[in-house]
Amino acid sequence: MSRHDANIAYRTCPLCEATCGLRIEQTHTGTRVTGDSRDPMSRGYLCPKGASLVRSDEDRDRIEQPLIRDRASGERRAASWEEAFHLIDRALKPIREGGDPDALAFYYGSGIAHTIANVYYGLLAGSMPTNNLFGSSTVDQAPKQVACALMFGHPMSIPIPDIDHGDYLLILGANPAQSNGSLFTAPGLANRIRRLRQRGGRVVVVDPRRTDTAEIADEHVFIRPAGDALFLAGMLNTLFAEQLVNLREATPHVESLAELQKCLEAFTPERVAQACGVPAPTIRRLARDIAAAPSAAVYGRLGTTTQEFGTLASWMIDLVNILTGNLDRRGGVMFPLAAVAQANSRLLGRQLPHRLFGPPTRVRGAPSVSIVRGFERPAVTLAEEIETPGRGRIRALITVGANPVLTRPNSARLKHALTSLDFMVSIDPYLNETTRFADVLLPSPPDLAKEHYPATYMQWSTRNQARWTPRSRPLRENERCDSEIYLRLANILRGAGADADPWDLDQSYVESLVDEAISQEGHRLFGRARDDILAQLGPRRGVQRILDFYLRSGPYGDAFESGRDGLTFTALENATHGIDLGPLQPRLPEILSTPSGKIELAPDVLVDDLARLSEALDRHVDGLLLVGRRHMRSNNSWMHNVDSLMRGKDRCTLQINPVDAAMRGVESGDIARVSNDLGELLIEVEETETIMPGVISIPHGFGHDDPETRMDRAKLRPGGNVNLLVPDDGCDPLSGNAILSGVEVEVTLAAPVPHSSTGS
Ligand SMILES: Nc1nc2c(c(=O)[nH]1)N[C@H]1C(S)=C(S)[C@@H](COP(=O)(O)OP(=O)(O)OC[C@H]3O[C@@H](n4cnc5c(=O)[nH]c(N)nc54)[C@H](O)[C@@H]3O)O[C@H]1N2
Ligand SMILES: Nc1nc2c(c(=O)[nH]1)N[C@H]1C(S)=C(S)[C@@H](COP(=O)(O)OP(=O)(O)OC[C@H]3O[C@@H](n4cnc5c(=O)[nH]c(N)nc54)[C@H](O)[C@@H]3O)O[C@H]1N2
Ligand code: SF4
Ligand SMILES: [Mo]
């Protein structure tokens, strides 16, 4: 089928990390979205969100042109793009010229990775001299990136399960049957898990909830929230004690094995069992099973990172992979090699040791970490950096694809802090709980009007592939492409003004990419003529030209050498269903860029943090511990305005074990009050045996009761905002990541279910 069939468009679904191939067909009854059966990765798989992409795009509550808010009256009005950009320029001038660069802050949300223009130009706009760079990375995966940077040298060097060839998979704190996977691009992950088992393999899920993923696994093991590092330490201890360590191919590449063994000596399975909630014999058995499996992979995700021992747990997950000889090995965990901007490859130049830690934050001295680009400050420190007077106080904020009022801990505090800003700009298609504080809201266009390439997620894909998505429809008169929005904003921030040509900045950006490559020893383009490369990049501009540059200079590219085979943007453009670049291949030692050039098994900062872990061994908890969950039909705080996804029963419920429910006098259907020192929340009770006693679960992203927003359907079923209960004063001390899991709360009856008094 040609790309140019007027009624059919193919595109990569931008809504989650699975990056499924979609087929979008205009029929006489409307638009139909199905899975692209010829996509080399997803092979026809799609989920209800992908199937609702057109509905989401056509949502009448989406903002179509810039909105300006009048501070005095609070009224909002639609404005032209020109007026909006000129207002931003005027309002930011005193901040830009005030001699305090930290007065300007950025907050990048999860929306950023789903648009290719965000990945390049959004960050370009953010490359200002401010230290106040924030984002959802530090309510999410920062600990994993910090652990991998310390062990392997680069924060993008995250080994992922080679699931299609593996014999054993241990999953901790992830529920891909609902989330479709994260830091692990493998569309239809639940089907891949089923196939692994059909091949005779084994899948074990370790989670305080018996999740949908656990339902399709061989075994489920309950674990206390934040117990993972202790549990994994017990497994590692077993591997050493029972002489099961077998590094296989990694043997010549590791450093500090003896130190590692020593620092884990105290964490015997018997010693950790009580605190992590997993019996010692189970810990030993799982360690033995992994060591004995022909190949095995341990995969941990959100539940293992958004907790007080996030970096330790992330480290230990890969230690189990390494010590059982499963790193960089078929069927184990492997490092992908993406076609575009694989930042950790020596093919793209000498890999210098990565500077991971930046200056600590101003108010509480929390770490800032370089995990994507620039040093990111922990999201949990955003409110205090706005509230606390002095040099460096945030006075202006730019948010991009983010809704931190609902997604960041201590929502009430952030909401209040936002009212004290001098100026706020948001780039987002919705007037939501956060963007309603913006003085100017710039709407990103709907997905079908966007070009796309999932550059970020291909760095964590279980098979190497490349797939380009052209616009499925042209931009409408009022719409501006993301590239233009960011480039104009970047011009303003640089002092070039609202009228400067955005494409001049694009030109100088591409020139800087070429200059960097040709001057970097070891890069495929080292020593090449700048003009020759720029000429070959030809008349394209924007993300297409940047992608052409990265593809051609990347590991599969033609290196701009005539007559040489290799990937180019043109080749990709012609491949309607994408280009399959094959299964993952071993990358040791090419991937390593630590100071020693080896895998650092026992980095000092991690070993030192074990003292904190030891203190958790004897901790006693009185209350219930809160964890989250995700549902296939939701997407963090957004997509709750799409009817087709919101059908069915309420999903924002309090899941509680019947034993705990009985002790607190609540039952299914009651409205419970969930509370702690920080706040309280009223929410419907759902009793279920699938949750561990002592633990409750509430999903995040709800609480759509703010009358100032424009998400009318979401408001009909607002749900409660769990982040009213999650404190922002703590964080994982190594990565600065938020602690979302394991927050202590109490549950009491607020209002009984109407029928309970009649005894039904
Ligand atoms: N308690 C608790 N809190 C959590 C979590 C949890 O599990 N429990 N999960 C955490 C995690 S993992 C994350 S990633 C964060 C997410 O936190 P956020 O990134 O703050 O939240 P999202 O709801 O994903 O916000 C995405 C925003 O992008 C906008 N958007 C959609 N499409 C586009 C587009 O094309 N362009 C632009 N510019 N914007 C777009 C949406 O309207 C929405 O406002 O939440 C975190 N918060
Ligand atoms: N449908 C849908 N898909 C999504 C999203 C969405 O909102 N909806 N969000 C996207 C985003 S931003 C992300 S980051 C990914 C996340 O993808 P996943 O990592 O799969 O996230 P969750 O589905 O929240 O699963 C986390 C699991 O951790 C468990 N857990 C909580 N605390 C602990 C703990 O201390 N230890 C252990 N072992 N487990 C624990 C929870 O019970 C839950 O089952 O999903 C992405 N995909
Ligand atoms: S799984 Fe993710 S990428 Fe695939 S269709 Fe659903 S939302 Fe889109
Ligand atoms: Mo996330």
Please, could you describe this protein's structure?
It is a single chain. Helix 9 runs antiparallel to helix 11, helix 18 crosses helix 19 and helix 19 runs parallel beside helix 21. Helix content is 30%, strand content 16%. A seven-stranded mixed sheet has the order 5-4-20-19-18-6-7, covered by helices on one side. The protein is built from 26 helices and 29 strands. It has 760 residues and is α/β, with parallel strands linked by helices. Strand 4 and strand 5 (76-78) form a beta hairpin. The protein is globular, with a radius of gyration of 25 Å. The model has no long low-confidence stretch (mean pLDDT 94). The structure holds ligand MGD (2 copies), iron/sulfur cluster (SF4) and molybdenum atom. One ligand MGD binds at residues 109-111, 115, 136, 139-140, 302, 400-404, 407, 427-430, 432, 444, 628, 636-638, 700-701, 722-723, 726, 740.
